[in-house]
Design brief:
This protein has helices at about 5-25, 45-60, 75-90. It has about 90 residues and is mainly alpha-helical. It has a single domain (about 5-90), classed as ACP-like (Non-ribosomal Peptide Synthetase Peptidyl Carrier Protein, Chain A, Orthogonal Bundle), CATH 1.10.1200.10. Helix 1 (about 5-25) crosses helix 3 (about 75-90). The protein starts with a helix and ends with a helix.
Amino acid sequence: MTAELDQALRQRVLEAIFSILDRVLDHPLPAIADGTDLRADLGLRSATTLQLLLELEDSLEIQIDIEEIAQASLTTIGDLADFVARQSLAG
């Protein structure tokens, strides 16, 4: 797969994340970017993170291997987008 397609896939993942976060957060969505911290900036907890991942699977029609997620993979929105994009290429 070319770098251009990888960037298109990553952008699609980011758009899905933004859309889902807008629904699952119990508060208004602040300005978010690649470096936005999921816990510190958005207040995501374990249950909300799991809900986000499950909705990403449905939205993107992919399978995310929850067991492969390391804490580092869920630090920022950019980290999560990279992980999900890699998962969709592996699936």
